[in-house]
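seq as requested:
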Amino acid sequence: MTTKDEFKQAPHKLLVIPGPIEVADEVLFANAHPSMSHVSPDFIPVFGDCVRMTREVLYTKTAQPFLISGSGTLGWDQVAANLVEQGENALVLHSGYFGDSFQDCLETYGAKVTQLKAPIGRAVALSELEKELKSGKKYKIVTVTHVDTSTGVLSNAKEITAVVRRISPETLVVVDAVCSVASEEILFDDWDLDVVLSASQKGLGTPPGLSILVASQRAIDVFKSRKSPPSSYYASWKKWLPIMNAYEAGTAAYFATPPVNLIYAYHAALKLIVRGEKTLEERFKLHKEASRQVKEAAKRLGLKQLPETDDEAANGMTALYFPEGLTAGDILPRLGKRDVVVAGGLHAAIKDKYFRIGHMGVSVVDGQRGDVNTIVRALEEALKEARTKSA
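C-alpha cells:
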C-alpha cells in the first residue's frame, strides 16, 4: 500500500495558468483519502480546523469563514443573496473581465449596480471612487477584484477600504480575492474588510471545487438584520452559518453534503501554508520574488506587460502581450511542447493579443522544484523558435 511518504505525482506538464495551479504531493494524497462520512467523528475536527486555519491565512480573529462546495463564482452569489436586497445600490470597481461578471451576478439578484471602469491595464483610481461615494447615492456594498485574472491588475484593497470607511462607513467592502488569497498579502482585520471571497484552486493550492468566503461580524450583522429572506436557497447563510458554527465547535450538522475529500485536501494545503516551514510573510516574499523574476525575463525578451504600472501588477501571475507579428498559435503550442501550460487571453477587448502565466503556490514556495526557472527557460526557447520561423 502506498504511504504518504512514498506518494509522488505522475510526470505531467507543468500547469502554470492563473488557476488551477500545481498542488503539492501531500495535498493530492489527502484528496485520495478513503471515502468518509461527512458526520464522522474523524472528519468533524478536520473541517473545524479548516475553518480556523482559513482565518489565519487572512489575518482575522473574528471573521466567519464559509467553506461550501462550489467555485469562486459561488462567492458572488453569497454576497448578492445575503448582503444586498432588491433595489439596493452596489458599486463595482472594474479592472477587467470579472468586474462585469460580478455586476451580472448582483443584477441577477435585483441589485442596482453602478460600475467604475478603469482603462485596460489599470486599477480604478482612488479619486474616482471618492468622487462617486460623495455623489449622494447610498451604496450597500463596494466590490473590488483584488487581482483580476483577466488582466493581472492588482487593486489596492487597503487604500480602497480606507476611502470607503472615511466617506461612507456603513458601506460594506467586498473583495473578490479568488486570484489573490495566499499569493498577495490580505490583512482582513487591520484593513477593516467585510468580505473576502476566494476559491481552492489558486494560491491556496488545492484542486478546484471549494468556494471559500470570509465575512466580518459587521457583514453578518447586516445579513441578520435584512428585511427580506436571502434570495438564494443553496447560497443562503441562514442555511450555512449553523453548519460552519457546528463543525468549528466539534459537532456535525447537515444542510448539503460537503466535499469531504476536497476538505481533506484543503486541510493539507492549509497546514503547508500556516503550519509549514515557511511563514506566511516568507511566502508572500517568495511570490514577489517569483513575480519579479518572470516579469524581468519577459521584459528582457521584449514582451510588454499588460498592467501599466508595476505597483498595479499582481505577484501571483503575469499577463503579457504577444510580440509584434506573433500570435497565440506561435507561442502557446511551443510552450506546450516544452511541457509548460500557460493561459491565453480572457479580456474580450484584447483576447487575442496577450497570454497569462500563473506563478503561485507550490511552484514558487518550493524552490527545489525549479518551476519558475522552467517557465523562463521555456519562454526564452519558444520565443526564439517562433521568431526564427517567422523571419
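The radius of gyration is 21 Å.
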